[in-house]
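Internal tracking record. Fields below are filled automatically when a chain is submitted to the structure queue. Please do not edit lines marked as system-generated. If the sequence contains nonstandard residues, flag them in the REMARKS field before resubmitting.
Queue: standard
Priority: normal
Entity type: single polypeptide chain
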Amino acid sequence: MATKNTSKSNETQLSEMVENAQRALAQLPMGGAMTAEMLQVQDQMLSEMEEFSRHWFERRHEALRRATKLAQHIGENQMRDPATAAQAVSEWYAGSLERITHDAREGAEMTARCAGHLVRGSTQVGQEALSSTTQAMAPRRKG
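SYSTEM-GENERATED OUTPUT FOLLOWS
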């Protein structure tokens, strides 16, 4: 019998904890707005990352196409003309450096845009939280 009372007591305690948590969460008027704003920020950041990834893979495909073409060129000429082969390798290498430079530049630009989205979203949430808190703390008039 003591077990049932203890069990009931635990159920009552759990129920009270849930009710207390719900009351506490209800006091956070900005909860929904903050969630919506942060979801929007995440969507914006995802879009930035998807665009960067698409461009990155386009450059990797181009590098592979050019490397394949280079290998075919060298194979067809059977290295009869080492100067021509060296020139072809040098051109491929220059293109690779250019692609890597684009990777770095676009990566830095994407990071800056994502940081901007995050800062704007956080600022918006902060302003709304301040406004909501100010309203909640204002003395209520009895009518």
